[in-house]
Write a structure and sequence with these properties.
The protein has 4 domains: about 30-110; about 115-230, Beta-Lactamase; about 240-415, 2-Layer Sandwich (Alpha-Beta Plaits); about 430-675, TIM Barrel, CATH 3.20.20.450. It is α/β, with parallel strands linked by helices. It has 25 helices and 25 strands. The model is unreliable at about 25-30, about 55-60, about 160-165 and about 260-270 (pLDDT under 50). The longest helix has about 50 residues, at about 60-110. The strands form 5 sheets. Strands 15, 16, 17, 18, 19, 20, 21, 22, 23, 24 and 25 form an 11-stranded mixed β-sheet that branches. Strands 2-1-5-4-3 form a 5-stranded antiparallel β-sheet, with helices on both faces.
Length: about 675
């Protein structure tokens, strides 16, 4: 019995071990199956799980069934995620390829642009620079990724304020394209000078996907355009042959030294304020060189003269070639003595110069005309005329230098008097320095009018130009020019306007006047002027027309007889008076006298002046006066200078006398002040 116990224990152990193994095997197989499903869900379908005998066997257990359902749901979720991830990976791969292709294309586009392109982030850190950006001259090398754009740029520019201005503008006005001109320096020349390269730098901003701004900078090299423009600008302001200033540039630089604001038509020096001197240099006998040695020789002479004069330039001086053989040298001086020294220095420099051309030698000489500056003149042309005139006068002087002065004005202008006269007149009208004067026309038989100015009732209106120094310019110096250039109507209109304006302001005086005679030119004796301008003015101001008498010369009246008669007749119907001036100067005076509807006849002064000495003139005046009275006209004798002439006129029974015997013409204001 005791022997059987160990055997029983052994059998019991074996049975227990067998049962334990079976339990483990049965329990572990479903778990292994579930583990496989979790680890590789894509290999299993839902039907596989349902058909599995273990699943069927264990599905009777509620806990195991729930476990299987949860695991199955998880399997589906994992499988879906894996599928979506796979699709995303494939799509991302395509995007990466496209992005790589786009970057390559963008790089190719940037590199193909002829300008330098630099892209930065919102902090102006370089992110990209195309191939041409490597050629932008930077002292630090080139634009490198990750470095500050502005620090790289400013290391090679002299524009200190640029960074702050750009930073502020780019941050505040990023929608605009901003441009600025840059000068970069690429090194030094042979002489040590810096060599510039010119760029136009443009910038625009854009916003990326991260909502941060980025910037694109475009460098356009405009060096060739700049050089071309500088060349064009140089040629526009400099003489192509000598390299000195040309006339255009000279006139611009002369502007501060010409005082035209006062509209003074005559030359006057600015007293006590000499700033400079215009030295007008005329090369004598230049044509001899040109004609005998040829134009090339003449050009070379001008170049050498230009260099000699340029060597005499001091601070703020300037030199120009005005034309052919004429140079203008403007030197800064403080007195006439200093100006004279500068002029002498230039004269000695050039006049002692010998010009060689091949085997030939030419002695150069010049004449110099000087004008102190600033000066009151009408224009730069006027100033140069004075200087040129002085240079011509200088040829007759030992020193060959002549300074302009007011005393030399008429002598200097010479044959330019007609042009000058017109210029003087036009500017006097503009500046209102053309003044009105009155000269009395006195009744010979009314003794109360003889010497008392306050008793004068009839006047002729005359004009004078008053210079700033008080000197008078008489009509003989400017009216012929106005007639020659057909500008005399400007005088007529000015005189009428000024007279009517004065009358309005002095009505009490005008009420004492019998009439005022106003000279009219043939150009103004038209319907447009007389009926369209003068008549409406008189009607507007309310003047009595019979107080205005228009004087027309015999020559004008006869040359336009038909139209003159018609206009005079219409104006006389309105009440205006007319006088025929300078009667007797024409060849057929008597033949036309009766046809002209005038009120007064003015006997030409050339007869009156000789009436005491010439019996012929006496008889002519007698005849004119007699015929005039016969047809109902009153007569006026001009140029009554003495009592003897007056007595002769009384003898002939002439009605009125006008001349210095009764008084010279005085400003109209003075007559008005007498009343």
């Amino acid at each position: 019995m005791l022997k059987a116990i160990p055997i029983l224990l052994l059998l019991l152990f074996v049975f227990s071990l067998t049962c334990l193994f079976g339990i483990v095997l049965v329990v572990s197989r479903p778990i292994q199956y579930l583990t496989a499903i979790v680890e590789e869900p894509q290999k299993f379908q839902l039907n596989d799980l349902i058909r599995n005998p273990l699943a069927k066997k264990w599905s009777d257990s509620i806990e195991i069934e729930s476990l299987f359902k949860a695991i199955n749901k998880m399997r589906f979720s994992i499988h879906k995620q894996i599928t979506q991830k796979s699709l995303l990976q494939k799509q991302l791969g395509r995007y990466v390829k496209l992005l790589h292709l786009s970057n390559s294309q963008l790089k190719a586009v940037f590199d193909s642009i002829g300008d330098a392109v630099v892209v930065t982030d919102h902090q102006f850190i370089v992110e990209y620079a195309n191939q041409n950006a490597m050629n932008v001259p930077l002292s630090s090398g080139s634009f490198k990724k990750g470095e500050s754009f502005f620090q790289l740029l400013y290391a090679n520019t002299h524009q200190e304020a640029l960074e702050g201005r750009w930073d502020k503008k780019l941050l505040n006005e990023s929608t605009d394209v901003i441009r600025v001109d840059l000068t970069l320096f690429i090194g030094q020349g042979v002489g040590g000078e810096t060599i510039p390269e010119y760029y136009t730098l443009s910038c625009a901003s854009f916003t990326g996907v991260d909502e941060l701004k980025s910037y694109v900078f475009l460098f356009t090299n405009v060096s060739e355009h700049k050089k071309m423009f500088q060349r064009i600008e140089y040629l526009a302001t400099h003489d192509y042959l000598t390299g000195t200033l040309n006339r255009f540039s000279f006139e611009n630089k002369m502007a501060p030294y010409i005082k035209t604001t006062h509209m003074n038509p005559y030359f006057t020096l600015e007293q006590g304020s000499t700033e400079a001197v215009l030295i007008y240099i005329n090369i004598a006998h230049f044509r001899v060189v040109n004609d005998s040695a040829g134009r090339v020789a003449g050009d070379e002479l001008l170049k050498q003269i230009g260099r000699l004069l340029s060597n005499r330039l001091e601070e703020n001086d300037f030199l120009a070639r005005l034309e052919g053989d004429v140079f203008a040298f403007v030197a800064m001086v403080q007195s006439k003595d200093e100006a004279n020294e500068r002029a002498k220095s230039i004269h000695e420099c050039i006049s002692g110069y010998k010009f060689y051309w091949g085997s030939r030698k030419f002695q150069v000489s010049i004449s110099v005309g000087c004008v102190l500056l600033p000066s009151h003149v009408s224009s730069i042309d006027n100033l140069l005329q004075y200087a040129e005139g002085c240079s011509k006068l200088a040829k007759t002087t030992p020193q060959e230098i002549e300074f302009f002065s007011e005393d030399l004005e008429l002598k200097v202008m010479g044959d330019r008097q007609e042009v000058r006269g017109l210029m003087v007149l036009e500017e006097a009208i503009q500046s209102k320095t053309l003044r009105l004067y009155l000269q009395p026309i006195v009744s010979i038989h009314d003794q109360s009018e003889n010497q008392d100015k306050s008793s004068h009732k009839v006047f002729e209106l005359l004009v004078r130009i008053r210079k700033p120094n008080g000197a008078l310019i008489y009509p003989s110096e400017f009216l012929p020019s106005a007639e020659y250039y057909k500008k005399i109507s400007l005088v007529d209109r000015y005189v009428v306007d000024s007279l009517f304006e004065f009358i309005v302001e002095n009505l009490s005086w005008f009420s004492t006047v019998s009439h005022i005679s106003v000279n009219l030119s043939g150009q103004s004796l038209t319907e447009d002027f007389m009926l369209g301008y003068v008549l409406p003015q008189v009607e507007r101001f309310g003047f009595a027309p019979h107080k205005i008498c228009f004087e027309v010369t015999e020559t004008v009246a006869i040359n336009n007889l038909q139209s003159t008669n018609a206009i005079i007749a219409q104006m006389r119907e309105k009440g205006f008076l007319f006088s025929l001036d300078d009667f007797g100067s024409g060849l057929a005076s008597y033949g036309y006298l009766q046809q002209l509807p005038v009120d007064y006849l003015k006997i030409d002064g050339s007869f009156i002046k000789k009436i005491c000495d010439s019996q012929v003139d006496f008889k002519l005046v007698e005849s004119m006066n007699s015929v005039a009275h016969h047809i109902g006209l009153k007569t006026i004798a001009e140029y009554v200078e003495s009592e003897d002439i007056l007595e002769k006129l009384k003898e002939l029974n002439v009605d009125y006398a006008q001349g210095h015997y009764y008084g010279k013409a005085i400003p109209i204001e003075e007559y008005a002040a007498i009343i």
